[in-house]
Amino acid sequence: MSGEQITESPKSEYSSPKFEYNTEIVKPSLLLHSCCGPCSTSVIEEMIPSYDITVYFYNPNITDRAEYEKRLESQKKFIDDYNGSSNRKGTIAFIEGAYEPELFIDEVKGFESGPEGGARCRKCFYMRLEKTAAAASMGGYDFFTTTLTVSPHKNYRLISEAGREICARYRIGFIDRDYKKNNGYLRSLELSKRYSLYRQSYCGCAFSKAEK
Ligand code: SF4
Q1: Contact 22, 171 (CB under 8 A)
Q2: What is the pTM of this model?
Q3: From CA 38, how far away is CA 143, in angstroms rounded?
Q4: Residue 116 CA, closest ligand 1 atom number
Q5: What is the pLDDT of residue 22?
Q6: Ligand 1 contact, 120 CB (< 6 A)
Q7: CA 124 to centroid of ligand 1, rounded, Å
Q8: What are 98-114's pLDDT values in tens digits?
Q9: Which protein residue has the closest C-alpha to ligand 1 atom 4?
């Protein structure tokens, strides 16, 4: 991607081994990992004025295939409806990552019974963010980030640590932002309702379904 228009002093929310763009002059490209349509709504609304967004739907943690398809459709519906709206601030691109729940099951082996927010989730965040960083690096994106921090049920610190560690390894910028701040979560509820999106009742894996 183009490397022109850079500034010298990155803000603290940017964890980038490279540089920060002046987003008022050029829109850098952003690969936005999305866990689901509803969580993506308020993040996209917040980021699209400044970034050229591609949504990356990579969620092998959704162990039930039918549930995965429902969330995928909800994500696509939001993007299609947003792109078709007259007041859009940009056009959102979309990539579906591989659906590979067997890799997730392997990854969390030994941590299945822990509570949500613990070691199992840490591995889950790493897995999803690492794949996103790899895809962003391969695709020549400037930054990656994730909708995971919208949810009040997710541990922001764990997600931030994972993103910062991974971005250093892949040498790609990570936007480390707690998207639930400034009413981000409430806004996602509002927008999900407005766009009539399916909203799931549990996090994603079979273990979280059993816990609910
Ligand atoms: S509870 Fe959610 S974040 Fe934690 S491992 Fe399961 S799907 Fe991943």
Answers
A1: no
A2: 0.90
A3: 22
A4: 1
A5: 57
A6: yes
A7: 6
A8: 999 999 999 999 999 88
A9: 121
